[in-house]
Amino acid sequence: MSPGRLLPAAIALILSGCGTPAPTAPPLEREAAGISPMFLVASPVDSRLPNPGAEALSATAEDRAFAQVAPEAALAPPATSPASPASPASNPAIYWNGLTTELGAAGKLPPPLFARAYALVQVGISDALVSAHDRRRGPLNESSVAAGAAYEILRYLFPVQADRVTSEALAQAALGNGSGSALGGWALGRAMGRLAVERGKKDGSDAAFTGTMPTGPGIWTGTNPVLPLCGTWKCWLIPEGAKFQPDPPYAYGSEEDLRDVDHVYQASLHRTPEQIDIVHKWADVSPPTIWNELLVQRLTAAGADNGSSARALAWLHTTIADAFISCWATKYTYWVARPFQRTPGLVTVVPTPNFPSYTSGHSTISAAAAEVMGELFPAEQGFFRAQAEEAALSRFWGGIHFAHDNNEGLRVGRRIGAFAVGLMRGQAKPAAVAAR
Asked: Considering only CA atoms, which of 31, 71, 24 is closest in space to residue 428?
């Protein structure tokens, strides 16, 4: 039994357990003329940021009080739990990425919201570090810059964890990770963090669905569908969620449609232990986190510097966030029923998510992420694309997606990823910047 076009030769490598090639440093120096792109501002000296060379003078009374407490925090026992970022002296972009992962998982964020959180945090830190490195500024302490940005953004994203975030920020702001003014860096980081929060409050993610769910043969049935308006959220890189869309789903009752239904059922009767393991690999952890860890592992192994790490993480997560928006625009255009709704008694490996089937979110975001990862680490491009194929197959083997959901998700995801890679190569500006 073959699920359509979903079995390329790369899957043989997946099932053979091929190893991951050794990581190499991400070639972000490809960015035109050494200029790092920014997502929240068009210039490192944007008028909404502290004046160059006078960052410390722009510090508020709250900033100065914070700076007085920070050195004491450096001497206190760390507030992190065993699941938190490991070393207080680690790369600040990766440190705050780890805390974002922990808080997002604890808050049980749906994957699109998890991707949004990653993007906001990583963009805020990346833009803050790019601005701090501008020759007209500084020198500014990188740990303080990143801590200031993360302080604002994480408190906005996880208000119930505000005390925890404050404690982490105090410890990080006190570190001597690089030379330069800690107070000036903190003030600049907070200013950039506030711009990220402002962007988050206007991205449409808090809009309430007031529409009417469609009904009819082959239409998804359920209550409280997850994030029906996600497809309308503001994108980072692509102009809008509707920019890249798949072909329409197969017509209900058509030969192609009935074949897709039967393929899922037949696969459910003949699952192998290896297939079940792969289903859990991609289902037991939120997909943005899986791709995030693939990148963090490589950045850490390669010893990437703070700025390169922040930019790489920002590119990956803005791409994933946009891919989710694009996929959700598709899901709530067609409202296609899930396999278990078409085949009563179908046994799935994992619970079916509470939203329509077409297209697959795992397939879309994984294909997009693979293209960005392949640009960052060209020697591993084949591995990343094989991982995307595996993610897609996992949803088919799990009984929660049709092959057509996955095939079209992969196709659209590759297009989004290619678009992002074009931006990384300096061919254009991200939509978030070009719109200003």
From this structure: 31
Q: Which CATH number fits domain 10-30+229-434: 3.90.1150.10, 3.40.50.300, 1.10.606.20, 1.10.287.1080?
A: 1.10.606.20
pLDDT in tens, 51-81: 999 998 888 888 887 777 665 544 344 444 3
Give, in order, the Cα–Cα distances in Å from 114 to each of 9, 14, 81, 267, 288. Answer: 32, 27, 21, 30, 7
First to last CA, the chain: 51
3-state secondary structure 348-414: CCCCCCCCCCCCCHHHHHHHHHHHHHHHHCHHHHHHHHHHHHHHHHHHHHCCCCCHHHHHHHHHHHH
Token reading at 197: 């929060």
Non-local (6+) Cβ contacts of 160 within 8 A are none
Peptide bond before residue 359 is cis, with ω within 30 degrees of 0: yes
Task: For the chain, give every residue range classified as CATH 1.10.606.20.
Answer: 10-30+229-434
Helix (H, G, I), strand (E, B) or coil at 64: helix
Q: What is the pLDDT of residue 64?
A: 82
pLDDT of residue 231: 98
Query: Largest Cα–Cα distance of the chain, in whole Å?
Result: 71
Spatial separation of the C-alpha atoms in residues 307 and 164, rounded to whole Å? 25
Calculate ∠ Cα 5-7-12, nearest 5°.
165
Which residues does 407 contact at the CB level (< 8 Å), separation at least 6? 4, 5, 6, 363, 392
Mean pLDDT by 10 residues, the chain (436 residues): 41 33 42 60 94 90 76 45 42 96 98 98 97 90 94 98 93 66 92 98 96 96 97 96 97 98 98 98 98 96 92 97 98 98 97 98 98 96 98 98 98 97 76 44
- What would the two tokens of residue 195 be? 């711009």
The chain-wide mean pLDDT, for the chain, equals 87
Rounded distance between C-alpha atoms, residue 183 and residue 127, angstroms = 18
Amino acid at 217: P
Q: Residue 219's beta-bridge partner residues? A: 336
Question: What DSSP element (H or E) covers 91?
Answer: none
